[in-house]
Amino acid sequence: MCGIAGVFAPGRDAARLAFFALYALQHRGQESAGIAAADGGTIRSHKEMGLLSGIFDEDILSELTGHIAIGHTRYSTTGSSIVVNAQPLLERTELGDFAFAHNGNLTNTDELRESLSPTTVLQASSDSEVMAKLLVESKGTMVDRIKAVLAVARGAYSIVLGTQDELYAFRDPWGVRPLCIGKLSEGGYVVASESCALGPIGAQYMREVRRGEILRISSKGLESYQTDVERAQPALCMFEYIYFARPDSKLNDRSIYMARYAMGRRLAQEHPVDADVVMAVPDSAVAGSIGFATESDLPYVEGLIKNRYIGRTFISPDQGMRARGVHLKFNPVVENLEGQRVVVVDDSIVRGTTTPRIVALLREAGAKEVHLRITSPPIKHPCYLGVDMATYDELVAANYTVEEIRQKTGADTLGYLSLAGLIEAVGRKREEMCLGCLIGEYPNVPAVHETRALARST
Fold first, then answer.
1. Of 133, 139, 213, 399, which one is least surrounded by beta carbons within 10 A?
2. In this structure, are residues 406 and 198 in contact, taking their beta carbons and an 8 Å threshold?
3. So what CATH class is 257-432+441-457?
């Protein structure tokens, strides 16, 4: 996942704008965050482990001066969760210094690492640093260097890069991870993982950054360089629609909220059930559950209230609290559940460890029946392109039938949205999406297929 943002705002405090853009992207990563700012001559940076609100204050932001800034909020897939792997990364070239922030996951990191000069020192353990070092060792202008990296890097990467006086953004030829650009009302541009980061800082959505496209933003304005993408099939991650993206974002002009609402309606058509109420597992399944309720002509109720801050504490619960598990995260609304036949809509079941606890919690609250409905097909395969999706051994749908999963969860019935229903709800062609975690067919990246074969064999 990860959230990235880049700001070019002449005459304004770009780091402050980047901070609020990142705040809107905090859902994409909570392990660490950082901002680097440039004033035309010097790049200053600050990053730490934790959430934005605990890292930045007025004193720190006041030191990050300049009209250019890039920011990153991290969810780790490659490289451990330690501060040396936090981003942005700072690098030095004969062209000058640059700051680098990456969302995605490379699939040929080992090959790229071996191609680096023997004298290159890697301080972090992430694929992001390998990519940044490739830019350092390449030749020519920054655009030339980016083109060289695009030619050899495989996998998923959406990048923002800030030099002392320019902002760059580029996206892999498959377009796996999202990246959009907006125009600031007072002049300048913003690049961000999702469109939800634009409005809070007064930017108007322009479009998605095209796959294989390089954007250069400078005092001359916005320039675009399109690299060859014929070798790469479009492969936007389907899970952005299912779970990752905020519901108030849009991808390729499709509202995430309306896509999830349509998933819920289609799910109700495919798996109807006699019930009294429909509820969601907060928060990503809310739009889908409202769609299910609308299509089923059933009332939508709040059955669980989420403690939105429990995942943001570093204080471990004691053994007695851990035993209560899901109670720490959710509290049932008994008045909406007692004596009711309840349809519970969730976006996915991955490992299958939390869902049985939720079903048990609803029964404890007095639900007479619990019917599980999932707004995605079963997740049967790992992700190698930027999502910590678990291994084959950990994925419940890779090892059990739908009926066996129902029994494990303790639900009265269980229904998954079909792949055809999902694709129709999203409104994109099947061949334009990465469906690897659902059907095991990944973008045409050789290293992914090799990794997949290795995962199967082990």
1. 139
2. no
3. alpha beta
Quote the pLDDT of residue 320.
64
CA geometry: angle at 172 spanning 130 and 398, to 5°? 90
Tokens representing residue 267 in the block: 């799910």
pTM of the model: 0.92
Q: Which of 2, 237, 383, 434 is catalytic?
A: 2
Task: Give residue limits of the domains in the chain.
Answer: 3-232, 257-432+441-457
pLDDT tens digits, 281-337: 998 899 999 999 999 999 999 999 988 776 655 555 666 655 566 778 899 999 999
Which are the contacts of 261, defined by CB distance < 8 A and separation ≥ 6? 287, 288, 290, 291, 294
Q: Domain 3-232 adopts which CATH fold?
A: Glutamine Phosphoribosylpyrophosphate, subunit 1, domain 1 (3.60.20)
CA distance 187 to 210: 22
Strands 369-374, 413-416: pairing kind: parallel
Between CA 294 and CA 292 the distance in angstroms is 5
Q: Is the alpha carbon torsion for 201, 206, 208, 209 positive or negative?
A: negative
